[in-house]
Amino acid sequence: MRIVTYNVNGIGARLPNLLRWLDERSPDVVCLQELKAPQEKFPELAIRAAGYGVIWHGQKSWNGVAILARGREPAEIRRVLPGDPEDAHSRYIEAQIDGITVGSLYLPNGNPAPGPRFDYKLRWLERLTRHAAELIAGGSPVVLAGDYNVIPTERDVYKPERWVDDALFRVEVREAFAVLVRQGWTDALRALHPDEQIYTFWDYFRNAYQRDAGLRIDHLLMSPTLTPRLQQAGVDRDVRGWEKASDHAPTWIELRSEGA
DNA sequence: ATGCCTATTATTAATAGA
Question: What are the two backbone dihedrals, phi and then psi, of residue A90, each rounded to the nearest 5 degrees?
């Protein structure tokens, strides 16, 4: 079973690429971020015609998250991250699929830092950490997949010194992410590839992809009860090189079947 | 320190992204 996180940077502009990728790779579960489309503009029929059940939470212009499941319907659990009734951003959706709780999340960028946007990012990370603790306490297998907008370590950025004051790499953010992971989560790509350079995002600027000037900011965190099933993890790097590509590439885990 | 490029929305320019 393959579970993927993919920040599409606009579901409208990316639909041809998304459909091609679904057809070529046949992922089982897909967590999308940055739909950048209101609820009623999501291309539900095209996704269903490709063979996927889907739930989504849209928003005009920005944000927006979805969960796709091949040949079945994701059973929605929630479409809001608990902890702030005032937060109107569509950045979290959660479903049950084949006995696994799947969260698709889009953590705030937080720039410029310091400032109110950065404060919002830190508060959102705190809320995610509280919710994640409850998920672990529940004992069910969980994967929290998404664009975390967090570069976890110096190894995860092409030129760390240029990013020290950026909201994706500031010490407070890295520490907050480490606190979350220490609850017992497994950063799947890093766990299976401890010494490799792995990027999931390349800026549109300055030929970043051609220069391999990337960041690792899309992550799949696995709960202690799911981690034993982890078999492979990787990034569909080539998709970033397609015409009209998103600036993020699909990032995935492959799970052994239950009891195998 | 800033722009570079891209998508969206509202009218050819502003905002946000990371």
Answer: -90, 95
